[in-house]
């Protein structure tokens, strides 16, 4: 009797799981059917196309550098060129006149506006480091552009998120809060690609923040 | 409204782009517009302080038969200056704003070009060189040349 009810319960859970999956796929296909045919969204690039180009960028950089630090520096430089242009474009699209100059506002701007413009989602978390007060961390649980990059074991300290950290560094500089930005891969359970972008703001920026806080 | 000159200055007030629409004389008039751009810098600073929530700065100064209007980009200190001949009829601010917005859009398109080495972050004031940008500015000059 007990085993029968147990089997029934299992069967019920199994069908429930199947229905959940079915729900998800049917919802996705519904959304696909509701896309506008005559007016397609032109502001999106297919992940496959970008992954192709990004892989080639990494290979191109790798042929021209010696060492992991140089590779990260080169990717960061390429990211900075993207960041400068992204900043102009994002501010143009926002149509606001107000420009962020404070540290916290700049970080929120990067987290929301820039991430949404680049990756169609917001960054997952913004934290302030507990050890030093000039370090902040932006976390992205699953950076889409790094999905198809697998780092070999002998280069495990290399983080292809250096491209993203270059973008963030350029935007921080354009917002008058220059910082040294690095990226680190910090896998958590179920999220092997979790990337943390660490920003270490320059001394002048922190001094200016202190003065502005005191002046208030 | 007869457009005479469009100039773009960077944050350090160095002219990054200057285009004059006088089709008669040559280099002599360019100097005149450069001088106008320089004298407008202080007025720009003071207008920016006065109304920080507006990109369009309005009429900056009038010199003889030329009127100078200013516009600041929202991404830092890049300024656009427009010089027109003083019109007989009242010129609406909306018309001037529209021209500025078109120049702004063309500038954004220019900066987003990955093959353009112009790097604003260094504040170096490199010259802006681009065929499409020149074409848009020429078109603006042609449209507003009555």
In short:
The complex is a heterodimer of chains A (about 220) and B (about 150). Chain A has about 220 residues and is an alpha+beta fold.
Structural description of this entry:
The complex is a heterodimer of chains A (216) and B (146). Chain A is an alpha+beta fold. Chain A is built from 6 helices and 4 strands. Chain A has a 4-stranded antiparallel beta sheet. The longest helix of chain A has 32 residues, at 2-33. Chain A starts with a helix and ends with a helix. Chain B has 146 residues and is of the alpha+beta class. Chain B has a single domain, classed as Beta-Lactamase. Chain B is built from 3 helices and 5 strands; from the N terminus they run ββαβββαα. Chain B has a 5-stranded antiparallel beta sheet, with helices on both faces. In chain B, a hairpin with a 2-residue loop joins strand 3 and strand 4 (66-72). In chain B, helix 2 packs antiparallel against helix 3 (131-143). In chain B, 30% of the residues are buried. Mean pLDDT of chain B is 80; it is low at 120-126. The A-B interface holds A 81, 84-85, 87-89, 91-92, 96-99, 170, 173-174 and B 52-55, 74-76, 104-105, 108, 111-112, 114, 119-121.
**Regions of chain A with pLDDT < 50 over 5+ consecutive residues?**
none
How many DSSP helices of chain A?
A: 6
Tally the helices of chain B: what do you get? 3
Of all chain pairs, the largest interface belongs to: A-B, 15 and 16 residues
Count of discrete structural domains of chain B: 1
Structural class call of chain A reads: alpha+beta
* Global shape of chain B: globular
Helix content of chain A: 55-70%
Rg on CA atoms of chain B, Å: 14 Å
Tell me the total number of β-strands of chain B: 5
The N- and C-terminal alpha carbons of chain B lie at a distance of 6 Å
Query: Beta-strand percentage of chain A?
Result: 5-15%
CATH architecture of chain B, by name, is: 2-Layer Sandwich
What are the salient characteristics of this protein?
heterodimer, A: 216 residues, alpha+beta, four-stranded antiparallel beta sheet, 6 helices, 56% helix, globular, B: 146 residues, Beta-Lactamase, five-stranded antiparallel beta sheet
